[in-house]
């Protein structure tokens, strides 16, 4: 096989190409403590975990404002937005009594609990506002 400009790849060139295509060493080196070799595949977050992540994120943005904002512009479903509103209300009360750090912890706990309860009860429905 003749490549561009008349250069023929040697065995070493083919080996490198095969290794690159196979994805060998995608990280560029041996596994580190952050990526142990015993792990068969990366963790894919569940729908419940994604719910908690997005609700926590937007709750932090909303906590110090006087409004909740528009759930559609946040990319939230109606169910997630209801969780956010409860989480923010609770965190605002905690912030007054115990400060910002406690309020932040309250947001995370509340989002995880709210999303767990929501998915336990069936989670999002079939409609766009569920």
Automatic annotation (TrEMBL):
<protein>
    <recommendedName>
        <fullName>Lipoprotein</fullName>
    </recommendedName>
</protein>
């Amino acid at each position: 096989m003749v490549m561009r400009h008349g250069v023929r790849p040697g065995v070493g060139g083919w080996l490198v190409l095969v290794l690159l295509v196979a994805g060998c060493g995608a990280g560029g080196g041996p596994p580190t403590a952050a990526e142990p070799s015993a792990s068969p595949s990366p963790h894919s977050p569940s729908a419940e975990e994604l719910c908690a992540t997005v609700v926590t994120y937007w709750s932090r943005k909303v906590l110090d404002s006087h409004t909740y904002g528009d759930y559609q512009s946040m990319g939230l479903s109606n169910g997630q937005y209801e969780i956010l509103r409860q989480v923010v209300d609770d965190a605002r009360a905690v912030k007054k009594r115990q400060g910002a750090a406690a309020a932040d912890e309250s947001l995370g706990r509340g989002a995880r609990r709210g999303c767990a309860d929501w998915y336990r009860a069936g989670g999002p429905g079939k409609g766009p506002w569920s």
